[in-house]
Amino acid sequence: MENIIIANESVLLESHQPEDVLHREGQKQVLIDCVKPASSGKRIRNIFLYGPPGTGKTLLTRWTMAELEKAANRIKTIYVNCWSRSTAYAVLGEILHQAEIFVSPRESMLSMTRKFENMVKSPERKFIIALDEVDQLASTEILYDVSRSGAGLVCISNNPYALSNVDDRIKSSLQVEGAEFPAYTADQVADIIGQRAKYGLAPNSILRDDVKMIARMCNGDARVGIEMLRKAALIAENENKRKISAEHIRKAFDEAKFMRKSKSEARLNDDEMEILKIIRSENRINATHIYEKYSEKVSSPVTERAVRKYLKKFSKLGLIGHEGDVRWREYFAV
């Protein structure tokens, strides 16, 4: 069936890079000020971008890196997501791969480190490396190695305290500046969704009031809002409609919410999944009883402190809810 609403679906994807990043002027200026020295061969000021999911951290980083590469041929930017590459070996391998430096499947860490050090010493190129979801690194030692090498470093995380527990040696080497990305307001999300609708949908296929409805429902997370717009358009097209309705949006919200939960769960490790299963098997359960049940089920349990960290992570991902103060807090599935 011919598309009657979607004109360019790639614009409706989270990965799409718009011509400009809306409502992040302050953060954009801070990031540009930090990385711009690379265009004249100088070292950048390392920066840490933090804020809730869907607030433009990754989007702005990718936009800035692309603009820098356009403006200066000598700059090479590299982006690594530390959720999928959490070990120093995996991070280093991905950096070398994006720099088009051959790495054999069985290459040693020492060999890769030497290749990396030679790479950043090149007078012909200045390297800027973005490490997204930096709090997922198995070891923060890679931060020390990259920052000491002379490459510029952009760290990104949903957790504002992601770098607070690194040892003093690494902190001293990093010397990061911080830029906070607060949740978007509903009006700001409406502008972002409206921008995607303008270039991704057929003219007049969604009313401004319905764009605002999506913005209210996604609770400041622009990624959810963009996915809702795409899903609503697909639902409307499947019904052979020429306009997106409020009912299409409500259906899209349910689908987007389910999809985001599924994506979040797919990224959990075995211990995290076991803990989540325990919470889902109970009506209400406190952290102590969660740890007791978890310890009975696995042969090598993580520490109780680690479990509490997982609970905070589940809450941020929207996988669980909780009631009560810290001491008497009870957790439940949502």
3D architecture notes:
The chain has 334 residues and is an alpha/beta fold. It folds into 3 domains: 9-13 and 184-263, Helicase, Ruva Protein, domain 3; 25-180, Rossmann fold; 268-333, Arc Repressor Mutant, subunit A, CATH 1.10.10. 49% of the residues lie in helices and 11% in strands. The protein is built from 13 helices and 8 strands. Strands 2-3-4-1-5 form a 5-stranded parallel sheet, sandwiched between helices. Helix 5 (141-149) links the parallel strand 3 and strand 4 (152-157). The two termini are 37 Å apart. The model has no long low-confidence stretch (mean pLDDT 92).
Largest sheet: 5 strands, parallel
**Count of helices?**
13
What is the count of distinct domains? 3
Beta-strand proportion = 5-15%
Layout: helices, strands, pairs:
Layout: H1 25-35, E1 47-50, H2 57-71, E2 75-81, H3 88-98, H4 109-121, E3 126-132, H5 141-149, E4 152-157, H6 168-174, E5 177-180, H7 186-200, H8 208-217, H9 222-238, H10 246-266, H11 270-280, E6 285-286, H12 287-297, H13 304-317, E7 320-323, E8 330-333
Parallel strand pairs: 1-4, 1-5, 2-3, 3-4
Antiparallel strand pairs: 6-8, 7-8
